[in-house]
């Protein structure tokens, strides 16, 4: 059964005007007002109108809730936090997936087959993904895996940096891809021969150097803007009891990566891998001066992870001048009532949110104005407010 | 009973076609079908291939193709500047640069670029001949006209180290705005590089 459009009592325009918003023009214009999925993951075809503020998807596990949010993320950023294999997005048995939406009044469309991708804005084909992304919106994705920002390895924290920086800086993604390719080539040279061909390794170090400068500059300036927000948000979440400090630890310290690698030749000769560079970047978090990954409690770590993500949303908003789309995958169910309320209050005002949850118990206590959908085995239908409350 | 397949000669043809770059098993099969559809299609192809093997070879100096028994129109042309050398990846790049009409020196085809991940090492490229040639020509400048992707840049860095040790002036092609284009057709990255490489008027 197709989803019904929003009923007239929920006219977005009237809702907006009743609220004092510092940047209401951006709010009114920048939103994803509907989403169409075709042969995407478990969905054969699905059209969902989205609410300008909050859209809730309720359902049991493995019904397709997260896939709906993933579709929004793919549509806006052409990447998914769940997979780097584009083929996985296509429904089993289908050859091409399609996601379409209305962003800011413009029709944006992304279609992907096993080998090719087609992007279009307002029907005009977009050849370069850079052009498409420049016109698209920004996204923040929050889910239970955010705990890995504290407990997991450094690759989780680098992915956090990459996800935000690639949305803020147009040259970031190209530098990242180029850097990764150059490191792979260099590591292969270091491993390949019994006697290492240093001249070749140095040639690749030279290529890495240029990309590394871009990555370090961008990550540094991203973290410079994130740091105060993390401290502030965590301060508010813990009602002033805890002080969190986050800092960026670059994987090379000198002015030139090539020189630093040349100085560490012995080490590289022994380990046969590139000893320094942005692929070894990390973030450190301290809580009241102590290392948060070891000393913070479960709840404190959860708050710190949330703070990092909320800070990301605020920084993206500052950078773009418009709030990002927030995708919250089963985040609220795990929080106690106080943290839930605090988190809702801390999200940048006027942002559009898509939330998935397995139960609405928690939402009865909160003021969650918006549309509510039930998701069951790849079928989405709108739920009347009276049915759940 | 064995599963039915094409007769062995056809299978061999498909296997050969499949070794061509950019051709997978399906494309190779389609080409075989196209060739078999009309017997007249095979003869000209065989003829052309035989012609290539007997009448063409690569110039020992620059690496561009010449007909047997003829002199290299590039290397043996006294009108060309003998002390400036342009290094390119493929013979097709020679034609492209020639058509631009902006270069009147000598060429040197590498035959690829340094790419450890594709198992291309300096020994697979014509780098030794390049160094020998630079010495015998007493070259003053070497222009590195290889691509600007990761492998191309690495190749340029590698050659730069070798050639500068010989006391040569080494240059690289500029990057920036396409000729005659307005700014609105250029992506941010190209624009960024064009700004970095701006020049004084």
UniProtKB/TrEMBL annotation, chain B:
GO biological process: DNA recombination; DNA repair
Annotated CDD domains: TOPRIM_recR
Domain Toprim: 83-178
Keyword match DNA damage: yes
Xref: InterPro entries: DNA_Rcmb_RecR, Rcmb_RecR, TOPRIM_dom, TOPRIM_RecR
Pfam families (alphabetical): RecR_C, RecR_HhH, Toprim_4
Signal peptide: none
Alphabetical list of PROSITE patterns matching this protein: TOPRIM (PS50880)
Keyword line: DNA damage, DNA recombination, DNA repair, Metal-binding, Zinc, Zinc-finger
GO terms of molecular function: DNA binding; zinc ion binding
Family recorded in the similarity comment: Belongs to the RecR family.
Known role: May play a role in DNA repair. It seems to be involved in an RecBC-independent recombinational process of DNA repair. It may act with RecF and RecO.
HAMAP family associated with the record: RecR (MF_00017)
Entry-linked NCBIfam families: recR
Protein name: Recombination protein RecR
Source organism (scientific name): Brevifollis gellanilyticus
Gene name per UniProt: recR
